[in-house]
Amino acid sequence: MKNILYIIYVRAKIFFILMISISFSSNFYVSYDTDDTEIISFGYYQNLNEYEKWSLDVGVDLDIESDFLKFINIYLQPTLPVSNKISLWSSFGYGFIYDDGGFENLNETLLLQMGIAGKVNVSSGFSHGIGLSYDLNDKIGFRLGMIRNEINADYKIVVPCCDNYEADIDNLDRTNIYITYKF
Questions:
Q1: Which of 50, 74, 77, 88 is most solvent-facing, going by the fewest CB within 10 Å?
Q2: Exposure of 67 by Cβ count < 10 A (0-12 exposed, 13-18 middle, 19+ buried)?
Q3: Cα(106)–Cα(122) distance, integer angstroms
Q4: How much is the pLDDT for 5?
Q5: pLDDT tens string 2-36
Q6: pLDDT for the residue 121
Q7: Beta pairing partners, 38
Q8: What pLDDT does residue 137 have?
């Protein structure tokens, strides 16, 4: 129940941010992860501040299709224009897991089948990435980026003869292709 309330709270905040931001210049995008995970995401970012040679955007994206974990990422995105159509960007933020795809239950079941009592807890953390943007015109653009979501999976395995065992899983690395549309 606590997780459901948290998901509703996070989704309500994202909706509120989007509703306020619609009145400003906005950039919406859909991205596809070309790696094995094949994650599809919808996202939004808008300019937070313009500086002399670069700009700072704030954004959020939501994984809508994934065979693995689904994230909501909130990030800051510094952008450095290289030309009128090409720019380099990086992103720094936090990724919240809102759907673990049954990962925790599956791993606990596998442990039980091996006769081991244990608890699995998956949590998320820092996200960061780099990429390249290309604007076809004033409204439509393409992006290519590499994003990493940190994942922490704690396996608490109780073995009577020994100390508790803890394991870790790899972070989620994505190579995304984006299509952007500016309002």
A1: 50
A2: exposed
A3: 12
A4: 46
A5: 555 455 555 555 555 555 545 456 889 999 998 87
A6: 79
A7: none
A8: 94
Average pLDDT over residues 85-90: 96
Distance CA 97, CA 138 (A): 34
How many CB atoms neighbour CB 22 within 10 A? Answer: 11
Joined together, the tokens standing for residue 60 give 């959020």
State the DSSP H helix or E strand holding residue 126, giving kind and residue range, or none if neither: strand 117-135
Judged by DSSP in three states, 164 sits in: coil
For the chain, the first-to-last Cα distance in angstroms comes to 38
Beta carbons of 151 and 167 less than 8 angstroms apart: no
How many Å separate Cα 68 from the centre of its chain?
12
Torsion of CA 106, 66, 38, 29, to 10 degrees: -160
18 contact partners, CB below 8 Å, separation of at least 6: 44, 60
Place of tokens 């922490």: 152
Q: Which two tokens stand for residue 161?
A: 């003869």
Instruction: Write the pLDDT tens digit of every residue in 88-138.
Output: 999 999 998 887 777 778 878 877 887 777 777 788 889 999 999 999 999
